[in-house]
Amino acid sequence: MSKERKDMLPVSREQVEVEGVYTDELGRAEYLHKGEEFPADLVHGTMEWKLTELAQIKHAEGRTDPDKDTEQGTEQD
């Protein structure tokens, strides 16, 4: 059953699972953060949303893994 759910597009009031730019049925694009709810249209109500662009998260230091210790040569005998 979970495969069936993943094949369907998310609709209004469902929770965003992947951060990025989503486009609704009317062609309006909106950047949504993970954990937010897909918005409903004031006139049309519940809308389907399609992910059109993934979020690109960049770190200020230019690293790809901020949790990894970047200090090298700090090992002691």
Produce the secondary structure layout.
Layout: H1 2-7, E1 20-24, E2 29-32, E3 49-54
Antiparallel strand pairs: 1-2, 1-3
* Helix and strand pattern: HEEE
User: Which stretches of 5+ consecutive residues score pLDDT under 50?
Assistant: none
Query: How confident overall, as mean pLDDT?
Result: 82
Helical stretch tally: 1
**Quaternary organisation:** single chain
- Class from helix and strand fractions: mainly beta
Q: Biggest sheet, in brief?
A: 3 strands, antiparallel
- How big is the Rg? 19 Å
Q: CA-to-CA gap between the ends?
A: 55 Å
Morphology call? elongated
Beta-strand content estimate: 15-25%
The residue fraction in helices comes out at under 10%
Strand order of the largest sheet: 2-1-3
**Number of E-state strands:** 3
Brief summary:
This protein is mainly beta. It contains 1 helix and 3 strands, in the order H-E-E-E.
Explain what the structure shows.
The structure is a single chain. By secondary structure, the protein is mainly β. The chain has a domain at 2-54. Helix content is 8%, strand content 19%. It has a three-stranded antiparallel β-sheet with strand order 2-1-3, with no helix packed on it. Strand 1 (20-24) and strand 2 (29-32) form a beta hairpin. The mean pLDDT is 82.
Features of the shown structure:
mainly beta; single chain; elongated; three-stranded antiparallel sheet; 1 helix
